[in-house]
């Protein structure tokens, strides 16, 4: 599932009590942490992560992260890669749902936090995953380390839950992560995650898209997306920007209403050009909850946009999810 805290999704570390050795903003970088031995700066060995000073009194170090996409959290990963003699022996995670854009003082002094991961032992130089069972929608998370130390990355996996008031003004991207879209399956993600297709903004490099390995058979690659809700699609955008010698030769898009519904055609198989933003009108009035894009035979794509409108029933469900939360079955 997508990492809702990523900087590229709009996430930010908005407060920490200490990051003397390595700044807390590193926690939400997209790439995995890197390490170069014997690389010293003024404050010591340079780490690609968050590292606090050694405590000489009782206490705890903390960092508060504003999620780039508020949503329902299914699990977190406390990644201590490269921290061997300086990782925290215990961690805990809390979360909160706050309306609007709160100040740091409001988050520290006035906000009610819910524990989603109890204080738990972790290992150094390890991806430490934790399941989260809450059904609530959250906007912020707080990572606590006991008593001090370093964490390379902090991942917050879940499904975006958009504010319904922002979905009431005409067409919007029904597949976007920030609007509740979610990848549920794909044939291949050798070079790049399919979640990149649904990220906000334009890709800046080939590495910010979805790319499959080269096929040596007669098949083709595909990706399947759960949309924000039941909706009708009026415009599809397939962007092959930065994919020059590895763009798909063609693509098609189908949709279905419900997991057991019959697939129907939204966009017939259409030739694509490399390094090009393609836009196609969709003249299909049938509602759908899921979409599938097939590319032929393989290759890479930067972004996939499906613009349309929610049905009245879907809008009502999103309003209910906003107020009461929901825990849908995560993809396998």
TrEMBL record:
Give yes or no: UniProt keyword Phosphoprotein: no
* Catalytic activity, as annotated: allantoate + H2O = (S)-ureidoglycolate + urea
Q: What does the record give as EC number?
A: 3.5.3.4
Look up the domain of life of the source.
Answer: Bacteria
The segment(s) forming the Allantoicase domain are: 10-159, 180-310
Q: Name one GO biological process term.
A: purine nucleobase metabolic process
According to the UniProt record, what class of enzyme is this? hydrolase
Q: Which UniProt keywords apply?
A: Hydrolase, Purine metabolism
Instruction: List the GO molecular function terms.
Output: allantoicase activity
Which residue windows are coiled coil? none
UniProt pathway: Nitrogen metabolism; (S)-allantoin degradation; (S)-ureidoglycolate from allantoate (aminidohydrolase route): step 1/1
Family, as annotated: Belongs to the allantoicase family.
HAMAP family per record = Allantoicase
Protein name as it appears in the record: Probable allantoicase
Q: Which organism is it from?
A: Williamsia limnetica
């Amino acid at each position: 599932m997508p990492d809702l805290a990523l900087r590229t999704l709009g996430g930010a570390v908005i407060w920490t009590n200490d990051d003397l050795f390595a700044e807390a903003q590193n926690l939400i970088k997209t790439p995995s942490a890197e390490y170069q031995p014997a690389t010293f700066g003024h404050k010591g060995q340079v780490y690609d992560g968050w590292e606090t000073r050694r405590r000489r009194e009782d206490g705890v170090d903390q960092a508060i992260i504003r999620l780039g996409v508020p949503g329902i959290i299914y699990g977190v990963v406390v990644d201590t890669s490269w921290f061997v003699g300086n990782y925290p022996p215990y961690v805990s995670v809390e979360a909160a749902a706050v309306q609007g854009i709160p100040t740091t003082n409001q988050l520290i002094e006035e906000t009610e936090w819910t524990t989603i991961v109890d204080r738990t032992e972790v290992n150094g130089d390890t991806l430490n995953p934790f399941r989260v069972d809450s059904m609530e929608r959250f906007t912020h998370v707080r990572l606590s380390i006991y008593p001090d130390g370093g964490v390379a990355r902090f991942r917050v996996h879940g499904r975006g839950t958009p504010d319904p008031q922002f979905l009431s003004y005409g067409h919007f991207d029904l597949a976007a992560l920030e609007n509740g879209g979610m990848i549920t399956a794909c044939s291949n993600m050798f070079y790049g995650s399919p979640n990149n297709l649904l990220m906000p903004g334009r890709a800046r490099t080939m590495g910010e898209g979805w790319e499959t390995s080269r096929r040596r058979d007669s098949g083709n690659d595909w990706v399947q997306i759960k949309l924000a809700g039941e909706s009708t699609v009026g415009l599809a955008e397939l962007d092959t920007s930065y994919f020059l010698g590895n763009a798909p030769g063609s693509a098609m898009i189908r949709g279905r209403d419900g997991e057991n519904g019959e697939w129907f055609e939204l966009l017939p198989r259409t030739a694509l050009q490399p390094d090009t933003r393609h836009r196609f009108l969709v003249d299909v009035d049938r509602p759908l909850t899921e979409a599938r894009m097939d590319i032929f035979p393989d290759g890479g794509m930067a972004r996939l946009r499906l613009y349309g409108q929610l049905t009245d029933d879907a809008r009502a469900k999103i309003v209910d999810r906003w107020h009461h939360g929901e825990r849908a079955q995560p993809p396998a």
